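Aim 2 progress update. The chain analyzed this quarter is reproduced below.
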Amino acid sequence: MDRLAYFWFRSQAELALHKHKATAFQDHFSEVMEAVHGTDFIRVRPAGKVGDRKCDGYLKSTDTVFQVYAPARVELKSWLNKVDDDFAGAKAQWSTMRSWTFVHNQHDGLPADVTQALLKLKTDHADLAIEQWPPTRLLELTEDLPEDRLVRLFGHPPLEREMRVLDRSDVAEAVAGLALESVSWLPDAADLPVVDPRKLDYNQLSEYPRRLVTAGIAQARMVEGYFDNNPDPTLRDRAGMLMKVEWLNLQRQGVTGDEAFHVLYERVAGNVQGSREATASLALLAYLFESCDIFANPPADWTGTAA
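Predicted structure tokens:
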């Protein structure tokens, strides 16, 4: 797999597990399971008075009933009730069930009482395979998926081979679809701008978004050349101001780090149809990052690792 595509898919997969809550997390779980298992997995939805019969998904080959729980806040009583009620309901309503899996969104682990409740179920129902899946399990499931299925899950990725051959016409599409004569540009390693690692740290970007920004910076000079040679002398400032406003709005909403990076990427790449356009969008976003239009620069005396 292309290295930049790998960074992209890992970044998107990790972000989805942190961003999604409640029904959105359940939908993501179902999409991952369908990508991995195809028609062996059945997505279950509530209907009428019987609801979903305490089942959010069913894996036919193992007769596994999945229960997904991804609340925005941890309230111990609600968690304990959820485990007990949903297991009892599934056991009563799914006579074919041989396995029950509790899928949750707690990255830092389950509360002790919830862990004990799950262990008690395993002891009391030794005839059933009972498991809990942390969010990292969904991340593991996507690791070996073929690229076409990853594209269905996360969209078209930027590609390293496309980054090497981007030209100004690609940037034109990424900044409002304006046309400009195509001028190819291939960077020499000595000419590349360097991303200030302090800025990456200060804005709390994790490994894969950091790698994406660093890869996109390879074409910063070409993006700058596009703006310098554009007949509209205000285009660069207008594009920068638009993204600056988007970033400030995210700050007001408390959206930071990786999630902010991906929201801004989506703002640039809203009409992406393939990897060439995705790569141009990443190059533009990295240029705006490096030129200080988006994300904050660390203060001169800053020595920490978080904004």
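The chain is about 55% helix and 5% strand. Confidence is low (pLDDT under 50) at residues 177-194. These observations will guide the mutagenesis experiments scheduled for the next reporting period.
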